[in-house]
Design a protein that fits this description.
The protein is of the alpha+beta class and about 650 residues long. The protein has a domain at about 15-200 and about 480-635: GroEL-like equatorial domain (GROEL, domain 1, Orthogonal Bundle), CATH 1.10.560. Helices cover about 45% and strands about 10% of the residues. It is built from 21 helices and 14 strands. The strands form 4 sheets. Strands 6-11-10-7-8-9 form a 6-stranded mixed beta sheet, sandwiched between helices. It has a 3-stranded antiparallel beta sheet with strand order 3-13-14. A 3-stranded mixed beta sheet has the order 4-12-5. The relative contact order is 0.17.
């Protein structure tokens, strides 16, 4: 089942490469992720990574499959910021399923049909085993502050309802017919080379109750931390500050991550990480002197959506995704035309009495220094969503060019407060200031610090993973049982379907006509292999926990599957992140949850990636005869 990473040129090379690439990220699964150093052989520089996405971001991928894998996880990471490791692992595992099926003589069309049906079964399990957040506890007003600082809450009482719900689902599906479909019918295969669609017609979440109770956000966040307790504490605190400043959402709390910004401070211990209202930015020595001059004043603000330079031209109204701001050194030479432009802009700003400019793009050092001499503070690289937030609270209208500024585009009521002088730590920039609009602002800054500079990227990724999990659960209002429970429910149901298919195949052995009419005679084999791939995922997470060997993990899973009819969900919940005889760890395991929408989307992208590579391999190996009967029916249009 695990196969080999040695490329066999006589077989489907794309599927083999996909399997080999997926093996790179096995150590990034589970709560105990391992740091890796990636070194550039040319320059000798190295980087410290701790996630699937960062590993691929720093690899030099030369093959087409590698580029496709990177684009897939990049698209998923951009939307969800979590689940990329699960996506890639299952893509590799299901690519080995496809290879095994091809070696057994199963056609590409039959493989795709059975895998697609298996995915429908898994998505149906996810929907029916999901747990409403309303049943996970009600927020106590007097303990809200305390729980946001410590996530050590007890979920054991709430788990009883979850276990009975999951067990009831299995009992209600013991006698399932030959074909399983979801309520909307058979899953339609839609492939896209870039996988940019964040939503799908099969994403099904339970509607929120008509009169929702106050959610205990810290209580739910504990189960979603996945080992990142400190990062989740910061996310909960950011959510609490937003809720405090947004009185309209107190009965239905949300977490607006578009109004959250991170600020990294190397050199300080990790204990200095904190959350503050407003927008914290780091300033150079020249900018800091202007900030001291403007502090505590009510400032006029201008918002520039793009670079603040004489040569900048906007990219059009439909701005392509993934565009990064870089400086063009060839255009940095001073010229009379640029100096003339700077003088015009400074004159315009002085006439408009603008004291603060927030720019989403880049600003040349010489331009910043020129503005500083006129006591105009310029802050570059501000997120577009933060610009919009300032626009909503101050009345400012973002413009593309400074020449477009007028009195109607400006905002007011902004304050600049010196938060901390970092010059004693040898930092450049040396001063951190807080830019805020005062009352009822939902802007929040998360300060991330570490004495190890190379660890800051991982800490920032961990925070955003927790923040997005919290955002999705408050949006979806449902959770999935974690710690491998959902995967094992899928394994149980896939095996039941496979056994049911084999039984019917044996009953039809005597009837050649019915045997011919069978929709897919290999359905049971493919579903069984698909279930084994999920077991491989769960066992790998168990191995990464440090308490199991690979053999012990497979043995423990097999034992639980054999006893699945005697209280399936309760036994699964207490297995996967601790030893069976470790009551402390087992009780903690029941607190783990996953996001429904994130897991569904990761599984979809994984299976679609396999389908895309499988079809591409088949076309390269066999070719396409457009004149052959049924040729079009075996193709999936991309």
């Amino acid at each position: 089942m695990l196969g080999s990473t040695i490329i066999n040129r006589r077989q489907h090379v794309g599927l083999q490469k996909l399997s080999a690439l997926a093996g790179v990220t096995h150590s990034s699964l589970g709560p105990n992720k391992k740091y890796k150093f990636i070194q550039d052989d040319t320059s000798g520089e190295s980087t410290l990574v701790c996630s699937c996405f960062r590993i691929f971001e720093n690899l030099e991928l030369t093959c087409a499959v590698g580029q496709l894998v990177y684009e897939t996880i990049e698209a998923h990471q951009k939307v969800h910021h979590t689940g990329s490791g699960c996506l890639l692992f299952l893509a590799g595992a299901w690519s080995r399923v496809a290879l095994e099926c091809l070696q057994r003589g199963i056609s590409v069309a039959q493989i795709i049909s059975a895998l697609s049906e298996g995915m429908d079964i898994c998505l149906d399990v996810c929907r029916k085993s999901s747990v409403s957040t309303e049943g996970l506890g009600v927020e106590q007003s007097e303990s809200c502050t305390a729980t946001s600082q410590s996530l050590g809450l007890d979920l054991s009482k709430k788990h009883t309802a979850e276990a009975s719900q999951a067990s009831g689902y299995l009992q209600g599906h013991q006698k399932v017919g030959h074909r399983t479909t979801n309520t909307s019918g058979q899953r339609k295969i839609k492939l896209s080379r870039h996988f940019w669609e964040a939503s799908s017609e099969n994403v099904s979440t339970m509607p929120p109750p008509r009169e929702p109770k106050l959610l205990d956000i810290a209580h739910i966040a504990e189960g979603l931390s996945h080992g990142y307790i400190n990062a989740m504490n910061l996310a909960v605190e950011a959510s609490r500050i937003q809720s405090k400043n947004n009185q309209q959402d107190r009965n239905c709390p949300t977490f607006d991550i578009t109004k959250v910004v991170t600020c990294v401070l190397p050199g300080l211990p990790e204990e200095h990480s904190c959350v503050l209202p407003g927008c914290i930015v780091l300033l150079s020595e020249e900018q800091a002197s202007v900030a001291h001059h403007l502090k505590e004043q009510h400032l006029k603000v201008a918002l520039i959506n793009g670079d603040l330079s004489a040569t900048y031209r906007h990219l059009g109204y439909n701005r392509p995704a993934g565009v990064q701001c870089v400086s063009d050194q060839s255009h940095l030479s001073s010229s009379d035309k640029e100096e003339e432009w700077v003088e015009k802009v400074v004159t315009l700003l002085l006439n408009l009495e603008v004291n603060l400019i927030l720019v989403s793009g880049l600003v040349r050092e010489k331009v910043i220094q020129c503005f500083c001499r006129h006591h105009i503070l310029v802050v570059e690289k501000v997120k577009a969503s933060i610009l919009n937030a300032f626009g909503n609270t101050t009345g400012a209208v973002p413009v593309t060019y400074a020449s477009q500024l007028s009195q109607h585009c400006l905002g007011s009521g902004v304050k600049v407060v010196i938060w901390r002088d970092l010059s004693s730590h040898g930092r450049k920039p040396s001063t951190a200031v807080n830019i805020s609009t005062g009352v009822n602002s939902e802007l929040v800054t998360v300060i991330l610090s570490s004495c190890v500079r190379g660890k800051l990227q991982a800490l920032e990724d961990q925070f955003w993973a927790c923040a997005y999990r919290l955002h999705h659960v408050l949006k979806d209002r449902v959770l999935l049982p974690g710690a491998g429970v959902t995967e094992m429910l899928c394994v149980h149901h896939l095996r039941k379907q496979a056994e049911h298919h084999v039984k019917h195949q044996r009953e039809r052995n005597g009837d050649s006509v019915q045997q011919t009419k069978a929709a897919n005679p290999y359905r049971g084999v493919v579903l069984q292999l698909m279930a084994d791939a999920l077991i491989d995922y769960v066992s790998t997470v168990m191995v990464n926990s440090g308490r199991f060997s690979k053999v012990r993990a497979w043995t423990a899973v097999s034992r639980q599957l054999q006893d699945c009819n005697e209280g399936l969900s309760a036994k699964f919940s207490q297995l996967f992140l601790g030893g069976e005889q470790d009551s402390v760890v087992s009780s903690a395991a029941v607190k783990i949850y996953d996001n429904l929408s994130v897991k569904q989307e990761a599984w979809r992208k994984a299976i679609d990636l396999v389908f895309l590579v499988l079809q591409a391999d088949a076309e390269v190996i066999t070719g396409i005869d457009q004149k052959a009967d049924g040729a079009q029916g075996t193709l999936m249009l991309l």
